[in-house]
Each structure stands twice: as structure tokens, then as C-alpha cells.
Amino acid sequence: MASVGEVFALIRAKGELTRTDITALTGLSRTAVGARLAVLLGAGLVKECQPAPSTGGRPATQLSVDTDAGIVLSVAVGLSRTRLAVCDLAGAVLALSDIDSEVALGPADLMPDIGKGLDVLLEQFPGVDIHGVGLTLPGTVDAERGCSCGSAILRGWDGVPLRPYLEALPRIGSAPIVLDNDANAIALAERGGDDDVLVVKASSGLGAGIIAGGVLLRGANQAAGEFGHNKVVAAEGIPCRCGNTGCLEAVAGGWAIVRALQQQGISVRHLRDVAELAADGDPEARRMVRESGRAVGAGIAPAVNLLNPAAVVIAGDMAGVYEMFVAGLRESLYGNATAEATGALQVRPATHGDRSATVGTAMLVLEHVLSVAAIDARF
């Protein structure tokens, strides 16, 4: 028998339903449906909308999730920029701000700035309920302990509990704080209607979010999708920032492209600068963007063969020069993957642009606080 949480999940998945729809889909009696809806309506999680078109007789009222019944906070930590946002209960961004700060400074420096930034954003939403906070990092995350775990590029963060920094904020209090890897968050934001999708984050580093059979795959040690540190012949002997040599990132990662251009005397600090140069027609920047695409395409070809996704989505800073990057990626991907795996494969840009990580981080916490288990526990 469908619980309150299951009825809520059904409404959330379908968008709008009538009481008759819910009765038919759940098998509950009209009385039981009414009782469950009374709980959800009383809590403000569900609202009544315009009546459905009449088929004769009194029009039926539609029910939908009240996305204005509170907010969630999104904190997407990047290597050179951290993005803070307030989102509604559908993950739509209501307010946004950036902290341009190197993650290499460590949590003791960056996390207090994040707290201050969230306090400033929250001034726009006095008295609004905070349902939860999402925090994503560009590396492997131990979600239970609430910290970065074994990430070679976040050495100062490894094992440092991050929840206490946010729990100290007066408005957050006991609201759940959910941590995950940024590529996983982007995958939730960019999956579209696909149950099998490979979302590539091509920014300073390289990573992927994997959805297979409708499930986000994190791996036994939460390290699924770290393809940027696969060994490739083109990078043989070239040092990577992870401490090893021969990694794909050492020739195709944004940080490697920036380094190469700086060695040529070109003034760039981040891949975003490179993307601007390429978009303005700089031949060397354009060449490097395309070569990065070729290397990434070859790097993900085995994953495409193994997983057979319906789509490969390109997110991260390279999405700003999508056509250039994907021109190289398609060439090597289709040349190295099997015809069976690529026959119907779509390669597409991230629909949320540079907000993919922000929206995905909000969706991570929403999946937690609005889950069947969470709603049932609440009521």
C-alpha cells in the first residue's frame, strides 16, 4: 500500500496529477488517497493547481509539488571558483554568487568564506525554510564522513570534516548536508530523459558522471568516473598534477593546456581564459582545444563500448567552446569505439551551461530530503 512518501514521489515524478490519477496509479482507496494528500497539503509540500480539462461534469483539480515551499542551498567547489546558490524545490536557481578563490588554500580558508557568502545570499530569503544543503567537490568524496577522500588534487582537504563549517551557520542548523563528487552532481542535472548517459566534465580536470539503468554509479570506493588519470601513450613520461606520469589529464586537462600556453608566453590563468581566446579566433588556443577533444574522445571510447550510453554530454568549461572541442572528440570517439556502441549515440552540450554543477548539487540534496524514506520519516 502506497505511503505518504510514495504518493509524494509519484506527484513529483509526474508533475501534475488528479486525485483520480493517484487512485488509479496506486490502487489506494479514495479515502486513503485523501488522507495522504491532506498530510502533504497541510505540510505545504503539495499544492492544488488549475482544474484539469473537463470530460463532462465538474473539472478535476490538479495536484503538484509546491516548489516554493522552501529552499535548498548549493555549494559547488571548483579548483579556481566556488559557486554558491539558493534553489527552489525543483532545483531552479533563485540567487547566485561566486567566490574566486583557489581550492589549494584549503578548507580552513575557503569554508569560512563559503559560510559568509551563504549568509549574504540568505538575506534575500528571510524566514524561508531551508530543507538541506548540497556540497560538491572536484574529487573523491566520503559522503558518510563528510570529507574529501584520497583526492590527489585536494591534498589539504583529505579527511577534513566539512559539515561543521556549515552547521555553524544559524540559518542551517540541523538541515541535512549532502556531499558528493561534482561530476556525479552534473550527471543528475544533465541526464535529460536518458537512463544510460555518460556526462563528461571537461574543465581544469577531467571526470565523468555515469548513469546506467537510471542509477547514478559511484563505485565501491566512490571513485567511478575518474578517467582523467587513465594512462595514455600520448602522455607517456609527462608529469601529472596527481603525482604520477602519463595521465590523460597531463595532455588534455584544462590545467595542462593553461600551462602549455603560459610556456609560450600567452597570458592565461584558467581554462575559461583559453576558451575566450579560442572563441576570439586565437589559432593556438583553438588547436589545443581541438586536440584536447581528440584525447578525451579516445579516452572515453572504452567507456562507451563498456556502458553503451544513449548520450555523451559535454559539461564543464569546455562547454563554452563546445563545437571546437567536440569536433576533435567525435573524430577519435567514433574512430575508437565500436559501431554497435556509437550507432545511435548522441553527443550533446550541457543544457544548464556553466550552472550544471550548481543545479546538480541542488538536485543531489533534493533527492535526499524529498526521497520516499525522508518524507515517510517526516510524517
Could you outline the blueprint of secondary structure elements for this entry?
Layout lengths: L3 H11 L2 E2 H8 L3 H14 L2 E6 L9 E5 L5 E7 L4 E6 L5 E7 L7 H16 L7 E8 L3 E2 L4 E2 L14 H5 L9 E5 H9 L6 E6 L3 E7 L2 E3 L31 H4 L1 H10 L7 H9 L3 H25 L3 E5 L6 H15 L2 H4 L3 E4 L6 H14 L2 H7 L1
Parallel strand pairs: 4-7, 7-10, 11-14, 14-15
Antiparallel strand pairs: 1-3, 2-3, 4-5, 5-6, 8-9, 11-12, 12-13
Q: How does this model look, in words?
A:
With 379 residues, this protein is α/β, with parallel strands linked by helices. It folds into three domains: 4-65, Winged helix-like DNA-binding domain superfamily/Winged helix DNA-binding domain (Arc Repressor Mutant, subunit A); 71-185 and 357-378, ATPase, nucleotide binding domain (Nucleotidyltransferase, domain 5, 2-Layer Sandwich); 193-350, Nucleotidyltransferase, domain 5 (2-Layer Sandwich), CATH 3.30.420.40. It is built from 14 helices and 15 strands. The chain has helices at residues 4-14, 19-26, 30-43, 107-122, 163-167, 182-190, 249-252, 254-263, 271-279, 283-307, 322-336, 339-342, 356-369, 372-378, and strands at residues 17-18, 46-51, 61-65, 71-77, 82-87, 93-99, 130-137, 141-142, 147-148, 177-181, 197-202, 206-212, 215-217, 311-315, 346-349. The strands form four sheets. Strands 6-5-4-7-10 form a five-stranded mixed beta sheet, with helices on both faces. Strands 13-12-11-14-15 form a five-stranded mixed beta sheet, with helices on both faces. A three-stranded antiparallel beta sheet has the order 1-3-2. Helix 9 packs across helix 10 (283-307). It is globular and about 70 Å long. Belongs to the ROK (NagC/XylR) family. InterPro entries: ATPase_NBD (IPR043129), ROK (IPR000600), WH-like_DNA-bd_sf (IPR036388), WH_DNA-bd_sf (IPR036390). This is ROK family transcriptional regulator. It comes from Mycolicibacterium neoaurum VKM Ac-1815D.
